[in-house]
Each structure stands twice: as structure tokens, then as C-alpha cells.
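Objective 1.3, modelling of assemblies. Example input:
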Amino acid sequence: MALSHIFSWTFMYDFIRGPMVWISFIIFFCGVVFQVLRFMSLLKEQPVKKFEPGPGNIIHSQTVSHLKGDRVKTRWFKKGPDKKDWMVWLKLSIAGVNPFMTIVTTIFHVLLIGVPVFVLGHNILLDNAFGISMVSLPENVSDFLTGVVIFCTLIFLFRRLFLERVKMITSYEDYLFLSLAAAPFVTGYLAYHQVFSNYKLLISLHILSGELLLMAVPFTKFIHMIYMIIVRFNVAGEYSFGNARKNW
Amino acid sequence: MFRKKNTAGVNSNEIRAILDEKKAKMKLSLKACAHCSLCAESCFLFMGHNKDPKYMPSYKFLNSVGVLYKKKGNVDKLDLGEMRDLVWERCVLCTRCYCPIGIDIPDMLALARRICRSQGVYPQYDRE
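Predicted structure (C-alpha cells):
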């Protein structure tokens, strides 16, 4: 195979939509599995001291009885924390302290994963290749949701540029990975609307950026996707989910 | 920023040895930090100092352990002095900071304190 053929446009295009997709998916899945296994090997089960009331133990039911005074007084059908407790809990949570950012990040992260899975174009490709028929969003809905993702990215960008507290801890990496996360959406949006006449170039940029994003997940800052799930569900602490009882 | 370093009195090997003890946790935590600044409001010192970003848990974490790791322990007394202010004056290790991703910030700041202490840099309350 001649060198000029390898660097030719048709070869690159075929490579990006052919073997490169497989390579990026294999790197993504193997990388995620590797990182999860590595994480789990770093975490060790910790002996948990259970605090149970009784003589000789740390918590003595009589000495702490004043702590549950309120609970005793509540009526029998209202045994759990009442509405006021929930309001206090919500107010102190990150959603109460920073509601705008919470909404924006939640929408962004849900759509970042959800939209590519349910876009009609991707599912037609899946159907053509493997005969897998997936549920898809209507085209105008996924188009709107792509716009929402791009809008959320812009909010993140402006936060990084103009909010002092974010600016202070921002490094060039943050801009790089923010643009990498946005790139498949921007190029996909432009390609769908055929903004530029060169559709083929845009769609190959779309595929390429998606592949780069997938390959970057297990090894770069995007690792917070794995880190968050593993740490919050496994490492014991007051902010952990479920009965996490491991430690580093 | 590009001042000449005078590394007299600082044992970089010792710093590296301490960093290596918690290498995996520290590296992964530094990598996973998305620099989102959502931890800010959970710090009472941040709230108490007119929301000064220098009191943000992530700022303290990135500028103590982050710098030590990035420079592989090649820091001088001036750097460690700044770090001393960061980890003792601006943090009381109350462990109230909340990271949405789950980074153990207090442990990282305690590590920075340990490294500063190993190099003889710590607040001397009886003399200051």
C-alpha cells in the first residue's frame, strides 16, 4: 500500500468510520474495566464498629434518650423525618445551595450520555449493521436536546472564563476536555443541519471527535465518571450512597 | 512564578517517599477533580471570609498536594511556607467539605500537613 494512498482522503474516511470505531470502543470498554478493577483492588474492606445501645457500649440508651425526644412525640403515622426535616436537608444539600449549577450539570450529564444512545441516525446505523432495532427519539427532539447540551457547555465555558472562583482553579486541560466533550455535539448539529456544504468533512469530524472522546474517558479527567460511581458507592463516609464499607 | 529555587533545607526524597505512600489515591483524586468549584459553599471558612475563592476546598487541595505532586517534591521553603498558610491558616480539618465526585479532600490536606511538618514547616503558635 503506497504512502500516498494511506494519507488520501478516501482511505482516511473509510478508516475513521471502519476500524477506528472498533478500536475506540475496545479501548473504551477495556479501559473502563481495567480502571474499575484497579479501583476495587485499591479499596479494602474496613471493620465497621457498630454503635449499639447497651451497658458497656459507647451509646447508652438512657444517656442519649434526650436526642430522640422529638421523635417520640411525633404521632404514630409520622414516624420518619417529617416535611420540615426534608426541607432543611434539601436546603443544606448542594441542590439547595447551588440550584442553578445543579440543574445545569444534571441536564448536561444525562443528555451527554442519553442523546447519543437514542439519536435516530445512530440507531439506523446499528440496525443496518447488526439488525438491532433500538428505541429512538424523534429527530426534532434530539435536535433540540443537542442544542441544550451545547448551551450547557457554553454555560460551563462562561463560568470558567468569568467566575473568579472557577477561574482560579482552571487549567488549560479543563478547556481542552470541555471542548472535547462538546465537539461531537457541535459537529453533529452542524452536519445534521448541513450548515457547510462539505457534509462529508463534518460527519467525519463528528465521528472522529466521538471516538477521541470515548478513548479519553478511562485515562483522562473524564475518569470522574468512573471515580464518582466507585467512590460514592464503596468508600465508607457520611456522603456515600448505600452501605459503603470500604476504604482506601 | 519563574523565580530561582533555593532548595536548601528541603529533602525532596523524603517528600516523594511520603507522597508515594498515598500515590494511587492522590493521583486518582487529582485526575478526577473536575475543577467545578461546587465544594466551595461547604467550607465554613469560605463562607466566613466573604466567599474568598482562596478558601475553597478544591483550591487548597490543588495548590498543596497538587503542586507537590506536579513538582515531584522539588519545592523550596518559600513554596512550603505558602503551603503552610494554605493548610493550617485556611483549613481547620473539620472534614465538612463536600465533593460531588467523592474526593477525600481532608485526607489530602492532612497529607500536605504531614509533608510540611516533615520539612520543619509548621505554625509555631508560641513564637508567632
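The mean pLDDT of chain B is 87.
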